[in-house]
Amino acid sequence: MLNIVIREAAEDYFGYQFCGFSYHYEYESDDTAIFYIYDRANWELDGDITGATIYNQSSCSSPVVTCGKDTEWTTEGKLFWLEEQPGVNSVMTHNLPRWASHQCFDFQYKENATLAGIYERVDLIRTVLQKDKNKPELKVFDKHIFNETKNYSTMANPGYQLFYNGIRIDTLLTDRHKQTMQDYYQCLPFMHRRYLQEDEKSIIWQGRDGKESVIWNYTPRSLDIQGHVTDITENKNLLAEKSYKLESEHTYKITQL
Question: Under CATH, which number does the domain 177-255 receive?
Answer without folding.
Answer: 2.60.40.1180
